[in-house]
Design goal:
29% helix, 10 strands, globular, six-stranded mixed beta sheet, 7 helices
């Protein structure tokens, strides 16, 4: 569960404000907004990568500001800055497993569906030499290692082709349902209305939430 109370962060052109927000497991939280709307800052605040000016964030009932173990249930991929370019894909995934202190098996990844690319996983090329789409696939897979209860993505489909986007959507639907998890992602223009899991969509503009809707309920009306 994610609980946010009176969250504020002063930015260059505006102040990001989230008065109150609760997200329950299992759920997909999609954050929409134009560039500069505050959505990336919002996910960075969830991970305590940038410091708040006021307010509180609770993950699974514990504040992220006075609890050193909150990150054990959380993983993220916010772009190529999270990758290690001189490693091969498999070396990177094994390194993530080492950091999270979990056993890792490539075979376990294949349970997650067609998104998994065996040729990519076995590639001897360094991550820095791969295409952007391939890099993002590896980053996404890394975020799943250890079966975290909360995964946060920033524009995960930005460099994926249409087929891989569809595979990614199926992947997160299966993960949310099977792990009783929350996935938070920022996005531009993609639709998640066909997912069978609960989908919550927030729209950001100038640091404020301007739309807040449950996609499943909208479809039922």
């Amino acid at each position: 569960m994610i609980e946010i109370r009176n969250l504020k962060k002063n930015l260059r052109n505006f102040e990001l404000q989230v008065a109150q927000l609760s997200i329950l497991s299992p759920e997909l939280l999609v954050i929409k907004g134009n560039n500069g709307s505050g959505k990336t800052t919002f996910v960075e605040l969830l991970l305590d990568l940038v410091k708040k000016d006021d307010g509180e964030i609770l993950l699974f009932g514990k504040s992220i500001y006075n609890n050193e173990n909150w990150s054990n249930s959380v993983n993220a991929f916010l772009g190529e800055g999270f990758l290690i370019g001189y490693l091969t894909p498999l070396e990177y995934l094994n390194f993530i497993a080492f950091l999270r202190k979990v056993n890792f098996s490539v075979e376990n990844l294949y349970e997650l569906g067609d998104f998994i690319d065996s040729s990519l996983l076995s590639s001897k090329s360094k991550i820095s030499k791969l295409s952007k789409g391939q890099q993002y696939k590896i980053g996404i897979l890394g975020a799943l290692i250890g079966a975290p209860k909360l995964i946060i993505f920033d524009e995960p489909m930005a460099h994926l082709d249409d087929q891989t986007k569809s595979q990614f959507v199926c992947l997160i639907e299966k993960y949310i349902s099977s792990k009783e998890a929350i996935i938070v992602l920022t996005d531009h223009g993609n639709s998640f209305s066909e997912l069978k899991c609960k989908v919550h969509e927030l729209g950001f503009e100038n640091g404020k939430i301007v739309s807040d809707k449950n996609i499943n309920e909208v479809k039922a009306e």
